Amino acid sequence: MCVQDLEKVCEEIDHLCLSTDNNNNNNIHNHTTQVAANQINLSTSFPMESICENTVVSEEKYNNFIPILRSGEWSDIGQRPYMEDTHICIPDLARNFSNKLLGEEAISFYGVFDGHGGEGASHFVRDNLPRIIVDDDNFPLELEKVVTRSFMETDAAFARSCAVESALSSGTTALTAMIFGRSLLVANAGDCRAVLSRHGLAFEMSKDHRPCYDKERIRIESLGGFVEDGYLNGQLAVTRAIGNWHIKGLKEMDDHIGPLSAEPELKLTTLTKEDEFLIIGSDGIWDVFRNQNAVDFVRRRLQDHNDVKRCCKEMVEEAMKRGADDNLTVVIVCFQAEPPPQMVVPRGRVRRSISAEGLLNLKFHLDG
Q1: What is the CATH number of domain 8-209+237-249+256-367?
Q2: Which segments constitute the PPM-type phosphatase domain (predicted)?
């Protein structure tokens, strides 16, 4: 499905958020790696904290705001014969890998990986990308550069693995979110999507990398690729992914790089007290949920019971009721301990008027 989300508020705002956690559907598959507890208190901000381009957040909005992370997730195989989705949640990235920065402020890491052509690539990225990020010499001071470089290095490492074990040959989209202090950094390669609820409004933290996206089509054609029937080189439904080295002409073309890129697009934002939660989902979720619809659904469920994992389960079940036929994975990260507040929409006074001609017609009908 290659339909761009038309919600204006999501397209016009360039700053959003991202997060993830993991749990599994015990009735179907357990494709999650969960590393620690589901609640973290982040008390200070990191040196690189900044606001995304063309965005101004007043000091009053985030002064003294301390995000309290509560997360949950749910996965289901859906109507597919195989489960190729997976995801991960690491509340403290450095501590998890016994990094020398142990004791510094926690950097939380969340990721959703939607595999295609097998589960090899998605599982490889889940298991290796976080460590590659932590092992980078510039982690965590130049986090944006580190994340971009780590996506590319993970792609190259997977290519080497496939050369040794051809059965691994496959591909995966990847969307990650890192939260440090009040900063949120989202990196996306593919068509998983992250949507932030800010005071009840949906804001995209990522753009779907599909051939129908003009920016991607231009990039593809500049590298010698083409779009045919909505597919990259007539073969793939996404334009950025890790893996797929086995498909000729996608990653390498003669003496230059191919049109399928593993380089992620990044978005950085500063969390404020108006930020309620982040939804991260594989494309199967977004086939049946529009951005604002998803935010409204999650808000209502959290207001009902304030159980994040239960909310994820309900969202996956709702997607299946709506006819989703793909693998389904959703991760929700809340930034506050309390459920989202009820929205009160003021009803303005609407002046009603009727034209002179309308008055004459009304008088005519009343007089019989």
Answers
A1: 3.60.40.10
A2: 70-335
